[in-house]
C-alpha cells in the first residue's frame, strides 16, 4: 500500500502525474476546509464518473479571497490536501493559488468537470473551458444539511 502523500502533486509535476492516471479523468475543486459527509459523498460520486479523480484545492490565499470570512480556512492547505489525499476516491490533489481553477484545468484537461449542486454548472467558465476539448460537466446533488459554514456556526454556538 502506498503512502497517501504520494497523491499530493507539486505544480512542476502536473502533466507527468496526470498522464499516468487511468481515463476517463474527472476533476473537481474546492476549499474542503472541514471535510464532512457532503464533501466525501460528492467526491465518491465524482470518482464514479471515471477511472481517476483529480481534486484542485484552493490554497490558503485563494480560499481567503473567496469571502468565506477572515478566519477561513480553518485548516492549512497542507492539512486539507493530506485529508483529501487519504480518501480512496481521490487519485491526485493539486493546490492552486488563483481564484478559479481555469489555468489548472488547461493543464489537467479532464473528460469530466464536476461541482456540487450549489453551483449552476452551466454558468461556470470552467464548464465552457472543459467543453472546448469535448469534456462534460455535471453538478452533483448536495447532501441535505451539510456545509462547512453551518458546521463552523454549530461549533461556535
General description of the model:
The chain has 157 residues and is of the alpha/beta class. The chain is 36% helix and 18% strand. It has helices spanning 14-19, 37-48, 60-64, 77-85, 102-108, 125-132, 148-156, and strands spanning 25-30, 52-58, 92-96, 112-116, 136-140. A 5-stranded parallel β-sheet has the order 3-2-1-4-5, with helices on both faces. The mean pLDDT is 91.
Concise summary:
The protein is α/β, with parallel strands linked by helices and 157 residues long. The chain is built from seven helices and five strands.
Give the secondary structure arrangement, pairings included:
Blueprint: H1 14-19, E1 25-30, H2 37-48, E2 52-58, H3 60-64, H4 77-85, E3 92-96, H5 102-108, E4 112-116, H6 125-132, E5 136-140, H7 148-156
Parallel strand pairs: 1-2, 1-4, 2-3, 4-5
Tally of helical runs: 7
In CATH, the architecture is 3-Layer(aba) Sandwich
What are the segments in which pLDDT stays under 50 over at least 5 consecutive residues? none
How many beta strands in the DSSP annotation?
Answer: 5
Cα-based radius of gyration, to the nearest Å: 15 Å
Keywords, separated by commas or semicolons:
157 residues; alpha/beta; Rossmann fold; 5-stranded parallel β-sheet; 5 strands
